[in-house]
Design a protein that fits this description.
By secondary structure, the protein is an alpha/beta fold. It has two domains: about 140 residues, Urease, subunit C, domain 1; about 350 residues, Metal-dependent hydrolases (TIM Barrel). Helices cover about 40% and strands about 20% of the residues. The protein has 18 helices and 18 strands. The two termini are about 25 Å apart.
């Protein structure tokens, strides 16, 4: 597939002594180099953030009156107190500001827009907007989604499942300056089929035997996925044990290819089975029962990472019952076309699916179901956090009503309601999230430290006083390029 022309790669920084190299080049090459120089000027100079307070959630350290020196795409050093101005390059005054690692959303889906039409397997609105038109719109707005993540201070994301064109999204992000770093999984290996999502490159693939699972993992491995994703769906027709041999085969084959496995498992016994079989990541909270001590110990002993995705649990029910609670950040930075579709009262009555009609008829029931989910999920999160399980922040953005980019700030609110401190929440969205991102990139994001990528968010107010301040963004730095926050979406 192709993406818009503005996806083309940002120029690499020019090396020292480039003037001399120009002399020996042809006129055509000179023109090319000069055009690159125009785009690369932000890279070419050393910059320093001077006088701000550096917050490093990974280790809980706070450095007042700090200077962060950035050379190219990396952090050269972090120092406290007055520095030799000659070594700082271009200085950016950050007095009174707070410098953090860029946020990381570890659970997104680029194949979904967040609008009302993006999951016809859940609520079929093909009669209003054909799903093929929805997918075309999604593919045409990839760059817009990238920018909305950056505006939200999110400099890296993990897409935990989508069609094979997901790998093109990663490739495009890698070649686009105004984009987060992207880790991806391919199609979800599932216990159930979702024919309504299959337009020839399905995001969810039903696997019936362990051999099929191994074969599919080998096919995925050719694309070098950052993760393999299992959609471990359990219902009366699909008990936990029936799919377990496929989970085992998927994990064994993935690990043989040095690929980690993320598992969707929202029931306690499903999650327990997944971790016992070797899952590296659980991509949702357990929502059916309180987690027990044996489960907590299992996650700790296996070093399993858990991503709670609290926000997504409320957004389907709230959208369908016309009680959507978008935050100010979502209203300001979410895609307005997506948000406009979420008013279900604008859909002609005769075209409303039963699921939405029922939700509109009984709005209190929708809220009651959400409340019951959080009565389990929030204490579970607190227990896991207190026990030292690695929690990585993620939203499941792209699902109906869960907005790409700023949904993370609603996730923060819900994590606060669970009893996590601002520092713990920020740790989940930086240092811990970098572990879930994984690979060499994951080892160089999530901290404000020498040798790490210069992916930073600069805030006007202290998020340790109130996690709501995490969205009070002054600037975002991605790969050493400085973006005034208000310029990103314009």
């Amino acid at each position: 597939m192709s993406f818009p022309a503005e996806s083309l790669a940002a120029p690499e920084p020019l090396c020292e002594g480039w003037e001399e190299s120009l002399i020996v080049k042809s006129k055509a090459a000179i023109a090319l180099t000069l055009s690159l120089l125009a785009g690369a000027s932000v890279h070419a100079e050393k910059i320093s953030l001077v006088g701000g307070t550096v917050i490093n959630p990974a280790d809980g350290k706070v450095l007042p009156n700090a200077t962060v020196v950035i050379d190219g795409d990396k952090i050269e050093r972090v120092a406290i107190g007055k520095q030799d101005a000659a070594s700082l390059g271009k200085q950016i005054d950050c007095v009174g500001k707070f410098i953090l690692p860029g946020y990381i959303d570890t659970h997104v889906h680029f194949f979904q827009s967040g609008d009302l039409f993006t999951r016809p397997d859940g609520t079929d609105l093909n009669s209003v907007r054909p799903y093929k038109d929805e997918v075309a719109w999604v593919k045409g707005h990839v760059n817009d989604v990238f920018a909305r993540y950056l505006r939200s201070g999110i400099t890296s994301v993990v897409d935990v499942g989508g069609p094979f064109w997901n790998f093109e999204v990663r490739k495009t992000a890698n070649a686009t300056a105004k984009a987060p770093r992207v880790a991806v999984a391919g199609p979800l290996i599932s216990s159930v089929s979702r024919e309504k999502l299959d337009l020839g490159d399905p995001p969810i693939v039903k696997i019936d035997t362990p051999d099929q699972a191994r074969e599919f993992v080998r096919k995925l491995a050719e694309q070098k996925p950052d993760l393999v994703k299992i959609w471990y769906i359990v219902d009366k027709d699909h008990p936990v044990e029936s799919f377990r041999p496929i989970v085992r085969a998927t994990i064994e084959e993935s690990h043989a290819h040095k690929i980690r496995v993320a598992v969707h498992a929202t029931e306690l016994e499903t999650a327990r089975a997944a971790v016992e079989e070797g899952a590296d990541v659980l991509v949702h909270s357990v929502t059916d029962n309180p987690v027990d001590d044996a489960f907590v110990k299992l996650l700790k002993d296996r070093h399993t990472i858990l991503c709670p995705t609290l926000v997504v649990f409320e957004r389907y029910g709230r959208t369908f019952s016309h009680q959507l609670n978008l935050t100010p950040e979502e209203k300001a930075w979410g895609n307005p076309e997506v948000i406009a579709t979420l008013d279900v009262t604008k859909i002609p009555q005769e075209k409303l699916p039963e699921r939405i009609k029922n939700a509109l008829a009984k709005p209190d029931e929708a809220l009651d179901r959400i409340k019951k989910t959080y009565e389990v999920a929030l204490p579970n999160l607190k227990k896991l956090e207190d026990a030292g399980v690695t929690i990585a922040a993620g939203t499941d953005a792209g699902n109906i009503g869960t907005i790409h980019g700023p949904a993370l700030f609603r996730e923060f609110q819900l994590m606060k309601e669970a009893g996590l401190t601002p520092m713990q929440i920020l740790q989940c969205a930086t240092g811990n999230a970098a572990k879930l991102f994984g690979g060499d990139t994951g080892a160089h994001i999530g901290k404000v430290e020498k040798g790490y990528f210069a992916d930073l968010v600069i805030l006007n107010s202290n998020p340790l006083d109130d996690i709501a301040h995490a969205s009070d963004i002054d600037m975002v730095i991605k790969n050493g390029v400085v973006y005034p926050a208000d310029s990103i979406l314009h």
